[in-house]
Amino acid sequence: MTVDTESPVRPMNTVTEDEPLGATRSERLSALAQQHGALVTLVIAVLAAWLSFDTFMTTDNMQNMAVSSAFLAVVALGMTFVIVTGGIDLSVGSLFALGGVLAAWGSQYGTAVALLLPLGVCALIGFVNGLLIARSRLAPFIVTLAALLGARGILLAVTDEGSKTYLVDKGSFFATLGQGKLLGIGAPVWITVGLFVAGAVVLRRSRFGQYVYAVGGNEDAAALMGVPVARTKTAVYTLSGLCAGLAGALNAAWLASGVTILGSGMELEAISAVVIGGTLLSGGFGFLSGSLVGVLLLKVIQNVINQIGSLDSAYQQVVSGGFLAVVVVAQTWLGRRRRVL
Amino acid sequence: MLPVTGSGAPPVAGPAMLSVSGLGKSFPGVRALDGVDFTARAGEVHALIGENGAGKSTLIKVLTGVYKAGEGEVRYDGSAVRFATPLQAQHAGISTIYQEVNLVPLMSVARNLFLGREPRGRLGLIDFRRMHREAQEALRGLGVRVDVRRPLRELGVGAQQMVALARAVSVDARVVIMDEPTSSLEPREVATLFGVIRMLRGRGIAVIYVSHRLDELYEVCDTVTVLRDGKAVHTGPIAELDRLRLVALMLGREIGDVREEGLTKFSGNHDTEAQPVLEATGLTVRHQLDGVSLTIRPGEVVGLGGLLGSGRSETAKAIAGALPPDSGRVVIAGVPVRTGSTPAAIRAGVSLLPEDRKAEGIVPGLSVRENIALAALPGLSRFGLVDEARIDRVVDTFMKRLRIKASGPHQKVGELSGGNQQKVLLARWLAMNPKVLLLDEPTRGIDVGAKAEVQKLIDELADDGLGVLLISSDMEELIEGSDRVVVLKDGAVVEELTGDAVTEDRLMRAIAAAPAAQATTPATSGGDDD
């Protein structure tokens, strides 16, 4: 049975079998839109804000936005790895807060403790998440939800139910990590940029990065091709915990205190940023630069709403939510055109 | 292509690379492998064949580390091994190409090809330039010209299969297992694949080749092992085994076996002169069916014969609208039916009793009554409300008529025996007043007594004027139950046996027949994953 490819009647049910070698033009356009849509939107949003508000493009406002974006961006970095494997990590908001408090508490014993303690604890929690997900095959949603609650509990225990606030000595080196400036740009921003460059190299150019994509793209096939699936999954959750803890610590250094109420809902912000940035929630496709753009876009929208002033800040969430819905719809649509979903 | 002379080069029997002895494997209720001996030698292409449930896939899975051996021993390169995971088997040098392409569609062709063994340069980072160049070269060697940086999913399935092949042979494999590698390949790609297989054999690699396509086996294999009911019933050079004998071994029949009449409960002939109730013409599904035509008259039982993968289930599904054909027509009682639509087929009076009761038919948690009424519900309700009294009448009628043994209409179907479950399914479709009944393996997995009853029922239904299409791997059932047998091979009708010609001997000869001289294209059917 040979199929004449010149035949005017193309088989209808063999979409996957009958594709030409190479994508069609509309598929490539869709791919481009999926990869760079967030960036285009960001540029438009920034231009619109610049033209509408005199206070938007000021050095102060820019610096504030950059620094407050930095913490979310670090969390989103770890989240991108997790989502590319097809998972989700809901614990990062709690770990962010826990990391901040542990860092502030640890800062009285020096910078090393202030960094290593939150990083160690949060990475350990992420590692346990990873083990439960990869080895015990539990659903990431439930495991990390449990970690969200558990980490909040630890946080409350450390701070006497939130009544105690640990301060960071403003003169310490640790405080410089949050408050210092280089070339007029805050230290957290520099650290974040460095982490994203390193993260992008790992994701795109290392063997581990290939495993991350393979696990998210087709877990069974990856296992059959010899990818250490469980190890890869454990690693991405550990990385996500580590990133959340680091972001919390940097935030504490910036604020000069460990604030317990921070970070709630941050997991959802991070997930939104990653998805807005073009990473598929179903896994197997995504990139760090997109997540960074997603973070900036969310922060610009927040900033604009603050600039309007007359709008209740609660509307921030309405706008962010609506925006996310639009992005997910657009992504699904583009993905179907590219036949990846 | 000379079918029986085999591979050209005489098989050079090298040392045993991968072998099992006394291998046994049981699953709850099933003895999948029972004392199997099998040896794949270096520089040999070893065909592994068998019908449904013969144990092929179980054996492959034990060899590749997916399953652990129950009893017996697996030896690899001279020493006893126990692979705990597929990864261990791979590292040891056993490469497998699966029927379903097992790659990552969103990743690029090159990344798929090199996943886990990417060429690395400074700092341990992947050297993409080298990787792309090497991927391009490896694929060019297999006649595939693609941009290796594009995602794999942009390739056709055949090309994807070639990528899997390139991956399997570019690792230093010493054993390559191919499970139905040609089921989605075009003839040109099949030729390339055979070239690669011969190249592997020349390099002293042991190739284990699983396929249902006899032509392919004779073209490329040296040795054949036939599995049946979990046992290896024959091993030997394929050139010394003629096709008819091979088919007989697979089916477990003796050629010229004098068949006793009356082993089944079929009464025999329903030949009628009436107008066909079903006319299917030129049903074609890419890689699966090639212009299948058949007619069924009211009161007639038409059997579909052929090996696993010959397109029997696909034919039934295409008629019932469950498999949209690329071309072809289905006419029921003189009225054309829109193909590819199950509702349209059901409305026209076609009922399909699917092969896999559990997955495709029965709802075990629901009662007998609910299961029977399920499909007929729209016809039994008024203004969206279910007419309980009518359902009771219908259910009662069919439970009596089909002699369904249940404590009552409210017993859960999951608690019934296989035979009674099958009857419940039959009742469900009969409640729709069908004109044509398509039965795919109606008696598989049910006990002897129930089997006889179902066979008797099929007869009665035909007597009542239904047109019946019967698919069965049970030769006796097929031959005694059918008034005519349409023989399929590689997705095409190769012969139609009528009246006295419906015999086991004729059927096996039809299945085993070498391709006609003009049909030089290798078979491209398959996908019958039953």
From TrEMBL, chain A:
Location in or out of the cell: Cell membrane
UniProtKB keywords: Cell membrane, Membrane, Transmembrane, Transmembrane helix
Keyword Coiled coil found: no
Family annotation (Pfam families): BPD_transp_2
Membrane-traversing stretches: 36-53, 65-88, 108-131, 138-158, 182-203, 235-254, 274-298, 318-335
Chain spans, region Disordered: 1-20
Source organism superkingdom: Bacteria
Residues making up the signal peptide according to the UniProt record: none
Protein known as: Sugar ABC transporter permease
From TrEMBL, chain B:
Domain of life (superkingdom): Bacteria
Transmembrane segments: none
Cited InterPro entries: AAA+_ATPase, ABC_carbohydrate_import_ATPase, ABC_transporter-like_ATP-bd, ABC_transporter-like_CS, P-loop_NTPase
Keywords carried by this UniProt record: ATP-binding, Nucleotide-binding, Repeat, Transport
GO molecular function: ATP binding
Domain called ABC transporter: residue spans: 18-254, 258-515
Gene3D superfamilies given in the database record: P-loop containing nucleotide triphosphate hydrolases
Protein name stated in the entry: Sugar ABC transporter ATP-binding protein
Taxonomic source organism: Streptomyces lasiicapitis
Gene (UniProt): rbsA
